[in-house]
Every structure is written in structure tokens, then in C-alpha cells.
Specification:
The chain is built from seven helices and eight strands. With 169 residues, the protein is of the alpha+beta class. Helix 1 crosses helix 5. It is globular.
Length: 169
Amino acid sequence: MAIRYEEATDEVRRLLDKVIADHFGELRNAKIVALFDTKKHAAGGQVMLSNITKPNELLRHFTRSDASSDDGYDYIVILDKKAWEATGDADRTRLLRHELRHTFYDIEAEDNPYKLVDHTVADFYEEIELNQDDPKWRQRISTMVTDMYEQEKEGAKEKKGKRQRRREE
């Protein structure tokens, strides 16, 4: 059985660092790991192109050495591998920037200051401003990736049908 998640490439790390430097200075010290999801993940009838999560205490424990921190990773960014491979830097930047908008640095927090939040109205307007050149970028990528998964599924069905016909002969 193949493992669903794999480490993202150095290219992802470089672009993530650039997005943080350009738009999210408060995250410059956050420990963030990026992973590829190699399988389709859907929610609400739509393919999930990316996601950001906070690791629970158990995951934080197991990521201490990887994060070079006694506290482990602060965030995990999960990227659909097909979406990443099928898009260019502009869309990749949009994906990362969108996920990082869910972060919040709570300067008054007594423990871990890195939090997750839902989008705000201000985020909505800023996203519109930043994506004026392609306001429907998410729908475009989602449709493309959904089609890729459907083609893969159809190809697997055809392959299975051919194997079964050969066995019956």
C-alpha cells in the first residue's frame, strides 16, 4: 500500500518562503512543512487543491527533529500533487497565499502564538485585489484537476476491463 503523503520538493519550499517574505512577515519564524497529497481529496463536492492545518500534540512531538524545534511544526500545508504539477508559479503562489491567509499570529498568546482562522471580509477584498488578472483561478484549477482525476479513474477502469477480458479468453 502506497503512502498517501510525500514530502514536497525544494521548489515548493522556496516558493513558500517567498510568499511568506512578500505577504506574511509575521510567519518568518513559524515552522511550516509542506506535503503533497497524492490522492484526490474532496470536500463539499469539490476537489481540495490545498489545505493548511495545525498539527496536534502527537504530531508536534514526532516532528520535533524534522522542524529543528522542541515544539515541532506550527503548520502543515498540504498540496494536491496533481494541482501543483499542472500549474505554473502564478497559480502555485495563489494556492500558498490562500492557505497562509488562514494563519494568525497571536502576539498575546501564552503558548504557541500560531493560530488558524477562517477568512475575513478583509481577506476577501485583498484576494480580489491580488487576483485581478485571474479572479476565477480556483475554479479553473479545480476543474482541470477534477478532469485529471476522472481521466485517471476511467483509465484504471479500462485497464481492469482489459485484464478481465484476457482472463476470460
